Amino acid sequence: MKWESFKTGACVSVPLGDLHTLHPVVPTSQILKCLNFAIPDAPQTAMIDMLYFTGDLTERVQQFSSPDVHLLIPYIRHVLTMAKKYNIKVRVLEGTPSHDWRQNLIFKSLNDPDPTTGESGIGADLMYVDQVHIEYVEDHDMHVLYIPDLRVDAADLWKLTQQKMQALGIDMVDYTIVHGAFLHQLPPAAISPYTHDPDNYCDITRYHIFANHIHIPSVYRNLLAGGSLDCLRHGEEHAKGYIRSYVSPDRKHHEFVVNPHKTQFKTIDLSGKTTRECVREINNVLEYRDRLAAIRILADKADEVYQLGEKLNSLFPNVKFSFDNLKKPKTSALSSESREVLVSLSKVTLTKDNLKSELLDYVAE
After folding, report:
1. 3-class DSSP state for residue 313?
2. To the nearest 5 percent, what fractions of the chain are helix, strand and coil?
3. pTM value?
4. Helix (H) or strand (E) holding 285
5. pLDDT, tens digit, for every residue of 167-207?
6. CA dihedral defined by 204, 209, 211, 217, rounded to 10 degrees?
7. Residues 6 or more apart whose Cβ sits within 8 Å of residue 59
């Protein structure tokens, strides 16, 4: 369809969340390639009115010396410069604390005047949000509700939202931007006090809710969850992409734009296979030889595939291989799933008060 914008009488919004740059498996350069697909310096981006970064811009805290940091900072500068050129409002929401670590503030550092020298920054229309907030966007006569991932009970956040709306004398907002999980997205065992009731927010949002935190895209009433832009781990073989939302006085529409550059994550059982058979199986599961992939190999340490090592890396330079030993005694070793939980929790300072909620949150992601 032809996309218009408020500049021509309608509103085009693009939410981008769960980007997880600075990732240990998927290179930041690959994630930025996906972002350049979603918001290129081109007419399709010039049509955007509201560009939302909806949390989890980064996967982990990183030292300034990291090469990935020096890819991410110029990219953010590029986005802000493009936003200023095309008159796009950029709104940056803080995501999960153990992922973002307030590193989203780099947007403000690049955009605002230098507090030491007074030199002007990029000067795009930017707002960084780390608290529950309702913004009135005067240009478009609309209210936008922002709910970052505050690690506060969902019931308390709902009460705070109602209080803020009452203070403004409104009973509806036009858009809601959330980083968090909703009841309909999770199995019962994964629901925690942080899980939002979707109907609460659907009832008070006139147009669209843009939600991130769960990596699987979904739609519930007017709640649009775009999932992650790229595939970031095993178990995410579904389509990846992003949402474009279109609202005009006479219609409301959205579409999920599939990302053709997503990383391939595959799991294959190569136990008992010869070297020739292993190479053939790997070739068969790869959809694209020239695209980044991560392959988890199931095998016993006595199998030939365990001895291939550098040969696999030379044959498949775009593939990151990992191994899962099929014959590890279950009583003396953690399952791969348990290891992933511990790796995730190693990024968080655990206490007796947050241990249960952090475990549940890992399951939810």
Report:
1. helix
2. 35, 25, 40
3. 0.84
4. helix 275-285
5. 999 999 999 999 999 999 999 999 999 999 999 999 999 99
6. 130
7. 20, 21, 22, 23, 24, 99, 232
